[in-house]
Hints:
- This protein is α+β, with helices and mostly antiparallel strands.
- Helix content is 28%, strand content 34%.
- It is globular.
Amino acid sequence: MQFNPESYRASETLPAGQRIRLRAIRPDDSAALRAEFLKLSKATVRDRFFSIKLDLTPGELKYFTEVDFDQHVALVAEVNTATGYQPAAVGRMVRSCDQLDHAEIAITVADALQGKGIGKVMLHHLIDCARDLGVRHIDASVLADNKRMMHLIRNTGLPFDSSLQQGIQTISVHLPA
Length: 177
């Protein structure tokens, strides 16, 4: 099944009552993605990329925003503020070339919005997209000290396996059909 980025829209309410909307990422999100990346703390960047990056390259921006929504799905979460909807998070799922029923996921939430439930909402939407595309296992590689992501994945209620090697925790969540 092919994911339809044009029609993908969702709206959710966070535990504190704030509204967020989710949509498929678009190529014209490149400048906003870079601007939001530059606002991230070093700790958040390290948790996502396993090293400190000062900026995203043009190639990375293209990779992150020009996705096919079959092998690579990317969603944007935006929070409703007094000045309109503002970027809050990006989540992505990239299928394994070797095993199409496996995909790696990653979620990045803006520092000021971490701990408000946005990551949980994003993860559940990525899981739904994965199921729609026939993915049965989602994997997340996280730094062993990234407690928030570990907690998020472990609290899906879905069965998972986990392994630790050289400070990297790999968690594989099994998605029922």
